[in-house]
Design a protein that fits this description.
The chain has helices at 25-45, 50-54, 64-83, 94-98, 122-142, 145-178, 244-252, 264-273, 310-319, 327-335; strands at residues 202-205, 208-212, 228-232, 235-238, 281-284, 287-292, 295-298, 347-353, 379-382, 399-401, 410-411, 415-416. It is α+β, with helices and mostly antiparallel strands and 419 residues long.
Length: 419
């Protein structure tokens, strides 16, 4: 993790005592997992002021306090409201304010206007989290074993959902900070680690049929299944991520001005948005710098290129005479342990459309809206980033964004089909 730990951890717990000794092993396991994830959200929000937590810098981002409240609503809506008899919601309007896109769960506030929610304030959001946390712990401690066993998978979805928002909390506040003319720092000591290079530059994948997707009963999202077979290769994948040094060469060669390198929509986006460099880069007195969680910093030539849209990644690959890998090629190479920095640096664009695997079925109910309804017009990214929470990465994880998005920690590695 390259998100620096804060010395003072703000928690959401009114009673920090360990879980009840009379609770069952499963209950204690759920309580510990729940507390760990919920406290990590508060730790990430702790360095932010009240003003920081209300800002929404673009429609695709959300305020930090909204992330804190939305993840709380998730547990209130899908666990407490449906499975804890007599539960009283904290506030009758919060379901409207903090639902995101679950149409089946009821109406919701417009996404692009979340930054207009000056109320509730961060103190009320903290109280909301404490209210729901206390009820969740009580549910864990009092539910019968068979009910706990039935609820455990739903709790796990909720915790993984909150981990997704922990990453978004940081990427969204970084985008907001990047709009400031006097750049603030979330954590002055923050640095993106350098990639490092060792071993062969390319990983060869001979032609073969491979299983793709999540196998077994460990946690996964529904979009990672079912396991199916795919023909992969022959192809070579770059062992290493594309670096800032390589990206500077692309820029110096006029890469952003060559329409022959770009998809039509991509070049239109670059012209419309005035792209001359990756997201969060600034030209300061003729020298490129990058806005990071540690503030405005010099470009580290050895660090992976970051805040890259799919359009930019595709253009760079064409400029280099290469391609982007498919998500299947990435998974096969990563499963064999052949890719450097596959996790914990930057999400890596693939050229695979975000579509259902053969035989995919969304889960029933409102949670079926979690992934399935987004399976169009987006591209798959693999791996994880430096702000992905610990324990939230796996080989089969399918992240997805629209091709123009670049406020996330997104980069690339190359593929070569001419070997």
């Amino acid at each position: 993790m390259c998100v620096t730990k804060t010395s003072s951890v703000a928690t959401s717990w009114a009673d920090p005592a360990p879980s009840s000794v009379s609770a069952s092993p499963l209950a204690r396991q759920l309580i510990d997992a729940y507390r760990t994830v919920r406290d990590e959200t508060e730790r990430r929000a702790a360095p932010l002021s009240a003003e920081d937590q209300v800002v929404q810098s673009m429609p695709d981002a959300s305020p930090a306090k909204w992330h804190r409240a939305h993840t709380t609503w998730f547990f209130e809506q899908f666990l407490l409201g449906e499975h804890r008899p007599g539960y009283q919601v904290f506030h009758p309007d919060y379901a409207y304010l903090f639902n995101s896109y679950y149409v089946s769960a009821g109406p919701r506030h417009t996404r692009a206007a979340r930054g207009l929610l000056t109320r509730p304030g961060i103190a009320e959001v903290a109280a909301y989290r404490r209210h729901v946390d206390a009820a969740m712990i009580d549910l864990f401690e009092t539910a019968e074993q068979d009910k706990l066993e039935a609820l455990a998978p739903l709790v796990e979805v909720g915790l993984n959902h909150e981990q997704q928002h922990q990453e978004l909390l940081l990427t969204d506040i970084l985008h907001a900070f990047a709009q400031n003319p006097i750049p603030p720092a979330y954590d002055p000591s923050w640095r993106l680690p350098a990639s490092g290079r060792s071993g062969d530059e390319w990983v060869a994948l001979p032609e073969g049929i491979h299983p793709i997707g999540h196998a077994g009963d460990s946690f996964h999202f529904d979009n990672e299944k079912p396991v199916h077979r795919a023909l992969v290769g022959p192809v070579r994948l770059a062992r290493h991520l594309v670096t800032n040094a390589e990206w500077l060469e692309f820029m110096a060669d006029g890469g952003y001005r060559m329409p022959t390198l770009w998809l039509m929509d991509g070049f239109a986006s670059a012209e419309r948005e005035g792209w001359e460099a990756p997201g969060h880069w600034r030209n300061v007195d003729g020298e490129w710098r990058i806005m990071t969680l540690g503030g405005l910093q010099p470009i580290d030539a050895d660090a992976p290129a970051c805040h890259i849209s799919y359009y930019e990644a595709d253009a760079f690959a064409r400029w280099a005479g290469k391609h982007l890998p498919t998500e299947m090629e990435w998974e096969v190479a990563a499963r064999a342990g052949q890719l450097a920095n596959a996790f914990g640096m930057v999400w890596q664009w693939t050229r695979s459309a975000y579509a259902p695997y053969p035989g995919y079925k969304a889960i029933e109910g409102a949670l079926g809206e979690y992934n399935g309804k987004f399976m169009v017009n987006q591209l798959v990214l693999r791996g994880s980033s430096c702000v992905t929470p610990q324990g939230h990465s796996r080989l089969t994880y399918r992240n997805f964004f629209y091709p123009h998005h670049r406020w996330q920690f997104t980069g690339l590695r190359l593929a070569d089909y001419d070997a």
